[in-house]
Write a structure and sequence with these properties.
The protein starts with 19 loop residues before the first helix and ends with a helix. It is mainly alpha-helical. The radius of gyration is 20 Å and the shape is elongated. The chain is built from two helices and no strands.
Length: about 60
């Protein structure tokens, strides 16, 4: 976890690079997250604050 160090010097530069599949998974997760929050915003705009109740009840079902 040398990326928290302000010196800017890292021990191994090759091991710290992201692989193509890791970048693909990050992009895939960002796409899903954007869709989820956009869908939530549209639902809140249409139904109002009552959707928060349905979001809290739904995982219990």
């Amino acid at each position: 976890m040398d990326f928290f160090m302000p010196s800017g010097q890292s021990k191994g530069s090759e091991d710290e690079n992201l692989k193509w599949w890791q970048l693909s998974l990050i992009g895939f997760g960002c796409t899903i997250g954007t869709g989820f929050f956009l869908g939530s915003a549209i639902g809140i705009k249409i139904t109002g604050p009552s959707i928060v109740l349905s979001f809290t009840i739904a995982p219990g079902i």
